[in-house]
Design a protein that fits this description.
Number of strands: 3
Order of helices and strands: HHHEHEEH
Helix content: 55-70%
Structural class: mainly alpha
Largest sheet: 3 strands, antiparallel
Low-confidence stretches: none
Oligomer: single chain
Shape: globular
């Protein structure tokens, strides 16, 4: 997987797993959304990725505008990070870009499946 793309996904995982917004893109995102909203949106996005690895089938993530987390996921994909190179948000769903190589998708899903372990937060 492309280094920048992987580093963005790694930054999301690290933020959720540790609660620390270490990467510049995450610091910016937390500044825009706040730590709780950013964490919820990252968990939704990463859970979707992890579930695709576990199920073994690609499917879109529904982002219904009536839910704040969905608006925040769209913000992450469209404006908040460099993930717009990986995903597209349109017609109420987030999905992989069509020009993304299957190998890159598989690498990303495998990374998220192994690394994404969100701790419970009070």
């Amino acid at each position: 997987m492309d280094g920048l793309m992987l580093s963005e996904v790694e930054a999301l995982v690290a933020f959720v797993n540790t609660g620390e917004a270490g990467a510049p893109s995450m610091v910016k995102l937390v500044g825009e959304l706040g730590p709780r909203r950013a964490r919820v949106a990252c968990i939704k996005l990463l859970s979707w990725l992890k579930s695709q690895k576990r199920i073994g089938k690609l499917f879109p993530l529904r982002v219904d505008a009536q839910y704040p987390w969905a608006q925040d996921v769209r913000h992450i994909v469209e404006k908040g990070t460099s993930l717009k190179d990986l995903f597209i948000s349109a017609d109420g769903v987030v999905r992989f870009r069509e020009n993304l190589e299957q190998r890159k998708i598989d690498d990303m899903l495998a990374f998220v499946d192994g690394a994404f372990q969100p701790p419970l937060m009070a």
